[in-house]
Design goal:
six-stranded mixed beta sheet; globular; alpha+beta
């Protein structure tokens, strides 16, 4: 079931025309509602809570209004819901100092602390502060994994964040695989912004040297770690995928005697099944 919510009359008419032109298979149900997101999402959440069905809720506003944190927290409270949010940073930053919009920013962040950004002169400090505040709010709402992708304009300036929030590690893996499949195009490029000190621009070929540095830098030489621990770090704390680290990182390191296997159930070298324990040398 697809539920589209659009308040603007002309955009709603265009949406209707586009959907009507698609020949939908019988197992697809499309509902279109001309209304403000904040006004109608509550009814949709009531239906979700009654049915227990999973949901991916994409919140893609024009600007920053109409997506109060209180509603996003309610979505986060639904055990099988995930969020994909366009956090329109450029718009937020442009209007942040306007006192008449303060109540709107209170709703957006669900907290008054955003005002501290007004005292930050550095553009990077302000971006980091507002992004981290928003992400913290989602995590406090119960979203275990919150991953950010920074969309850059043609001048390499921050445009907006695409923020994915889920309680399920498999959901995060799937979203990251989707982002790697979508090659940057047009006038936007995007990078993984989860770790501000290790931002990774998405490219057709992953930068495995960077991933190796991140793994070694996180665990440290001499450390004993499970393959599950490495995978959790790669998936949750880096831009890279769960398919990027074994063949491209661990296998060459083992051949070069940069790591040793302490415990494993594998049948041949180069495999790192669950339960494998290794030490970085």
């Amino acid at each position: 079931m697809f539920v589209f919510i659009e308040e603007n009359a002309s955009r709603f008419a265009n949406l209707t025309e586009l959907i009507d032109a698609i020949e939908l298979p019988p197992n697809i149900d499309v509902q279109m509602k001309q209304a403000a997101f904040a006004d109608i999402i509550g009814d949709a959440l009531d239906d979700l809570e009654r049915s227990g069905a999973p949901a991916l809720v994409m919140v893609d506003p024009f600007g920053f209004e109409g997506m109060p944190m209180v509603l996003l927290k309610r979505i986060a409270g639904h055990q099988r819901s995930e969020l994909l949010i366009s956090f329109m940073y450029e718009s937020v930053n442009r209007w942040l100092s306007q006192p008449q919009l303060a109540s709107g920013f209170d709703e957006l962040f669900g907290i008054h602390e955003w005002r501290k950004a007004l005292n930050l002169a550095s553009p990077r400090e302000r971006l980091d502060f507002l992004h981290d505040l928003y992400v913290t709010q989602l995590k406090d709402a119960g979203m275990t994994y919150v991953h950010s992708f920074l969309m850059l304009d043609s001048g390499n300036r921050p445009e907006y964040f695409l923020i994915f929030a889920t309680k399920n590690i498999d959901g995060l893996k799937a979203m990251k695989r989707a982002m790697w499949r979508v090659a940057p195009s047009g006038n936007l490029q995007f990078s993984d912004a989860t770790n501000r000190d290790q931002m990774t621009l998405f490219a057709p070929t992953p930068d495995y040297a960077q991933l190796k540095r991140q793994i070694i830098g996180h665990f440290g030489k001499g450390s004993v770690v499970s393959v599950e621990g490495i995978e959790l770090f790669v998936v949750t704390e880096t831009a890279f995928l769960d398919s990027h680290y074994k063949r491209a990182i661990l296998s060459p390191m083992e051949k070069n005697q940069e790591l040793e296997i302490l415990e494993t159930s594998r049948q041949r070298k180069g495999n790192y099944p669950p339960g494998t324990i290794l030490r970085f040398l």
